[in-house]
Amino acid sequence: LGFAVPFGFLLREVFARGLLVGFDPDLVRHAGTTVLLAGSATVLTLVLGFGVAFAARLVRRPGAGLLLGTAGLGYAVPGTVLALGLLGPLIAVDTALGEVMRAVTGHGVGLLLVGSGMGLIIAYAIRFLAIATGFAQAALARLPTDLDDAAFSLGARPGRVVAAVHLPLTRPALLGAALLVFVDSLKELPATLLLRPLNVETLSTYVYQFATRGSFEEGALAALLIVLVGLLPVIRMVRRIDDLDPAAPVA
Description:
By secondary structure, this protein is an all-alpha fold. The protein is 77% helix and 0% strand. It has a domain at 39-200: MetI-like fold.
């Protein structure tokens, strides 16, 4: 019911207002930008989250809890506060990179991180790192440490242990984390408004433009696309998780 009623309202507004007839061609580009940013952030967040959880597993000391707690701070901070806090450091890094490139090549590169969208991807990763870390840590906690000890005693390096042991066994959990991070990144608005590159729109900022003018019904098609773009990976990943047999690699 919580999904059907809003979805039905958006669908009704799309047809009642003829939004498909007067389709904005830029909407496809905005959808592609949204998927690209959210997908990139999902990959980065999963890599960082699994790395933090694996490092805490290797340390096996009380300080590991502090590492996991620090990784989860971004989720407790509002997106606006996070974006404002990141803006200064990102510009400082961009300025330093520009000075280096100017000294090496004689030409500046401008605001590389902020202007390319990488700053926004970093903000997404920090914002939702707690999700990936939590899923990875919970999945790794179910694996006996004897698996690690046996692999290390045979001379395997940590990277090999991760690829051959941990990733196959934690794949369903990581897919679930990827799903949540991707969907949350799709609809994140405050950080996107502050850190998006100039002349770049996502579906959430596109809908926000109509809401600020008091004509949010005109953004029904974009809102519907947010639902559909988020729904397709949900269906695919749920089927993928159901098809996976977590016990198979152990046999």
